[in-house]
Amino acid sequence: MDDLEKAVLISFDASGATALKSQAIAYIQQIKENPLICRICIEKLFFCKLVQVQFWCLQSLHDVLSVKYSSIAPEEKSFIRKSLFSMACYETANVSDDNVVRILDAPPFVKNKLAQVFVTLINFEYPSVWPSLFIDFIANLGKGPIVVDMFCRILSSLDEELISLEYARKKDEIVIAGRIKDAMRAQCVGQIANAWYNIVTMYKNVNPELCCCVLNCMKGYVAWMDIGLIVNDVFTRLLFELILAEGSPDQLRAATADVFLAVVSKRMDPKNKISLLHSLQLRRIFGLVMENSDTVLFSSVASLLTGYASELLECSQSLSTEGDKELSFELLNEVLPSVFHIIQNNEADSNFSIVKFLSDYVGTMKGLHVLKEVQILHVGKILEVIRAKIQYDPTYHDNLDILDKIGRDEEDRMLEFRKDFFVLLRSVARVAPDLTHMFIRNSLVRAVSSSEESSAEEVEASISLVFELGESLSDETMRNGNSLLQEMVQILLSTRFPCHVSRIVALMYLDTLTRYLKLILENTQYIPMALRAFLDERGICHPNSVVSRRAGYLFMRAVKILRPKLMLYTEAILQSLQDVVTQFTKMNSLSKELPGSEDGSHIFEAIGLLIGMEELPPEKQYNYLSSLLTPLGQQVEKIIVNGKSQNYEELSPDIRCVHQIIVAVIALSKGFSPKLVIARPTINLLFKQALEIFLEVLVVFPKVELVRSKVTSFIHRMVEILGVSVLSYLPKALEQLVTVSEPKDLVGLLVLLNQLICKFGAAIHGMLEEVYPVIASKVLIALQKIDNQGGSSGCPEEIRELQELQKLFITFLHVIVTHNLSSVFITSKSSHLLESMMQLLLYSCCNHKDIPVRRACVQIFIQLIKDWCTDHSGKEKVPGFQNFVLEAFALNCCLYSVLDKSFDFHDANTLSLFGEILTAQMVMYEKLSNVFLLHFVSKGLSNVHCPRDFSEEYCLKLQGNDVKSLKSVYQSLIENVRLQQNGSLVFR
Fold it and tell me: What span, in angstroms and rounded, lies between the C-alpha atoms of 242 and 238?
């Protein structure tokens, strides 16, 4: 063993990096730089038996040929060519030593590397330098299987490395592939096909592995060679003989199926393609998919038949003559039963899109008034496929019930997976509505009749078909329903599935009932059954809390739709819900998790909708509402009494109980309209009593955010339904609420104040005078954390909260001025805040990233100018305001901010802001006349070097009070100044 061989062995050592290994790698790298490296490698290949050395030598040859081929001397190239050909043909070249090594005796990975080197040579030399390459090789195939195997490896490597377009190729690589294919078509592809035939014929019984190599090699060449070389009486007969031979190895039969697949997938003109597919007579192998599905043969035949069916369907869509179309459908109808069998056995190839294929097939039936018998049969099979595919995997049954991470992932996956199949279902329903409805009905009946044996997954799939059926029905059909629909709804309402305890079954059942509520409304005989389904263990009393809460939400939706028909059932419903209501508000019974969107409160909203009907007699309505609110109020009062003598933690059981009670009463109040509450004093009184109690909660628990936010929500609701009668309660509420100082809490208070101003306007002027300075000072202090770049010294969440507070405060100011309440800004208690407020508004109207916020700020200034500026010179209403408007607002907002390149005239929101800025200029001119005009021209337009003619035209249009003309002129003025300055000046 010489130094090179030792170094190669060390470099292949996988035990880890060592100094010796590094030296070895450096040494062999130095050898690779030797001008004689090709000869060194070839000599080693003929004499060294170490496979590591053989592989290294072949890799080195590949690297040299790939990079330095053009610089290699002609005689050296000839030597390399002859040597490689000798190795591939199991020869020893001119070497006569008895110790010569034949590389074809090496392991497969070495032979594959030899094939790669050979293909590199083909890349450079075929056909210009070595036109007889393939003919020469074919002449050596008689030397036996070892050479045939090498020939197949070279052809496969050639296809993979240079020819196949299944891999991304550069333009120059596509040119090379075209050159090689053209030369092979002209010179040798016929001989290669004959060689394939002869080899398979000779070795099919004695060496099936070699035949598999040949067949696998053939697949890549079928795509571009003359199809007649394969599809002919002789070769096709051989292929059928191989695939149908029951005693042959499955691998050989599977490889034959892959060749057939390559044939049927060959890109051709549709007319020629249908002739080819017809001539193959593939029906002879359809039966193979009915055999054992766990074999490689089944998988390959499945891929063949689904590919064959896809090609037939594509042909049917492209062919123009009726005869050819009929032939394509005839062949397609023959293979479809096998395709359905493959799909239902989950053996379809991953490249085969089940939904696309079936959707395209269903698409061929569009516009047909009557389906043929075979089409009806296939539609039924498609529906069976849909039902099978939408079923959950029973493996995840427990995970889906407890809804752990695995269960959630599976539910999300199925939700996405089902979408395409439900789209397919609707397509089928459009072309064969009666058949689809009957299939869904029969599926449901079968699930019911064999409910003891049916799995939860099967029942859920059957119910989900009924649910999805509603997507394809018109509103008229949904309301009135045909006999089948009514039957299905009746079956659902009257059935209690043994597997109803399953979460997925219960949820789908409830969602399906909800979808058909319009039909139930028109068929009142179903209403008692529907109510029982929602209220018993199938719904609100279901043992799974997720199902129970979902049922409560859906029951509320049901009450909204069925409300006109529920008067007779109100008493019974309230009795059924008594335990649920108690459980929701009972102390110490709450989950440690805070309630979510489906927190169980929807049951109270449903109750509110029932007892809040105007048709209900006032006395009965009062009794119902009182029976609910009185005990809840007493419960809260008891906690308030205890709370005065002890400190409660945020999430203590009592605090959580108060929270739940307020949530329940808010939901309950949603069923009562303002008109009814105002018209019925006793109902009005009950809600006022509840408000008094909840406001006391604010006094006793002022720092408990959990209840404070809910009391605020309750005040919102009472403002809506009690109207002006709530005003007397607001001072106490606001007194407690203005104590907050956190941005999140201030936002909640501002939302409430906005509602109060919009609802009552001037009626709350006095309260607003007291509240405004308190809340404004807190907001302005909080907003000082935001610097002029809109950043913050806090965390991202704090930044977001402050930005939200800023936007809502500006909205608050906007609501105040638009309701003629701007005088609150200049009272003795508030005047000290005016400067900070103005600076905030000025900065925001020029720089805020949200254009709607900037527009709101401009609108605030417009209203303040109207309120505080007069047409007559004299004592100012607000000292300094007029000067601020002229010096700060007019120049910075109305000119400089518009000149900024970020002010985009192509943006709709920005154009709207531009309109407000123009309105502001017109209002300033209206109130301040030439004082504004002279200042704006001399201090503004002149400062930005606006051309005199533009300034004059602007003044003319502003004085003319023509908004449309002013907009055009001012935009032209801005664009002209921008061009002069080239966006280089920053004025603010």
Answer: 6
Count the neighbouring beta carbons within 10 Å of the beta carbon of residue 408.
12
Which segment of 280-294, 652-666, 765-779 scores lowest on mean pLDDT?
Answer: 280-294
> For residues 171 and 177, what is the distance between their CA atoms, to the nearest angstrom?
10
Query: Which phi and psi angles does 792 have, rounded to 5°?
Result: -160, 155
> Quick check: 442 and 384 in contact, CB under 8 A?
no
Q: Which residue in 323, 321, 313, 430 sits closest to 366, CA to CA?
A: 430
d(CA 345, CA 294): 10
Nearest to 723 by CA among 669, 680, 757, 674: 674
Residue 263 contacts residue 280 (beta carbons within 8 Å): yes
Tokens representing residue 396 in the block:
């995840």
What residues form DSSP beta bridges with 792? 786
pLDDT-based confidence at residue 590 (cuts at 50, 70, 90): very low
CB atoms within 10 A of CB 980: 13
DSSP notation for 870-937? -SS-SS-SSTTHHHHIIIIIIIIIIIIHHHSTT--TTSHHHHHHHHHHHHHHHHHHHHHTHHHHHHII
Q: How far is residue 472's CA from residue 434's CA, in Å, rounded to a whole number?
A: 12
Signed CA dihedral, 382, 387, 391, 394: sign only: negative
Q: What is the mean pLDDT of residues 534-549?
A: 93
State the residue for tokens 């593939």.
282
Taking alpha carbons only, the member of 380, 387, 412, 386 closest to residue 399 is 412
Q: Which pLDDT belongs to residue 96?
A: 58
What is the per-residue pLDDT for 62? 95
In the numeric block, the tokens 């080197």 are attached to 117
Query: Is residue 644 predicted with pLDDT exceeding 80?
Result: no
Residues 6 or more apart in contact with residue 33 via CB below 8 angstroms: none
Q: Which residues contact 28 (CB under 8 A, 6 or more apart)?
A: 4, 7, 8, 11, 56
pLDDT for 89 beyond 90:
yes
DSSP annotation string for 410-424 = HHHHHHHHHHHHHHH
Residue 591 scores a pLDDT above 60: no
How far is 101 from 98, CA to CA, in rounded Å?
Answer: 9
pLDDT at 247: 86
Give the Å distances, CA to CA, from 975 to 48, 270, 881, 935. Answer: 81, 60, 30, 21
Provide the CB-side half-sphere exposure for 803 (13 A, CA).
17
Cα–Cα distances in Å, from 176 out to 160, 167, 492? Answer: 13, 14, 67
- Single-letter amino acid code for the residue at 385: V
Q: Name every residue whose Cβ is closer than 8 Å to that of residue 211 and which is 6 or more positions away in sequence.
A: 199, 200, 203, 204, 242, 252, 255
CB contact burial 131-164 (16+ within 10 A = b; e otherwise): eebbeebbebbeeebebbbbbbbbbbbbbebbbb
C-alpha distances out from residue 453 to 306, 344, 395, 459, 498, Å: 33, 21, 17, 10, 9
Give residue 795's pLDDT. Answer: 76
Mean pLDDT of 690-717: 92
Helix 705-722 / helix 681-700 crossing angle, nearest 10 deg: 160
Q: How far is CA 387 from CA 179, 380, 465, 514, in A?
A: 51, 11, 8, 21
Mean pLDDT along residues 250-265 = 95
* Separation between Cα atoms, residue 468 and residue 473, nearest integer Å: 9
Q: DSSP letters of 717-745?
A: HHHHHHGGGGGGGHHHHHHHHTT--SHHH
pLDDT at 621: 95
Q: What is the pLDDT of residue 43?
A: 92
Angle between helices 681-700 and 730-737 (to 10 degrees): 20
Q: How confident is the model at residue 642 (pLDDT cuts 50, 70, 90)?
A: confident
Please compute, for residue 432, the number of CA atoms within 13 A of its CA located in the half-sphere on the CB side: 25
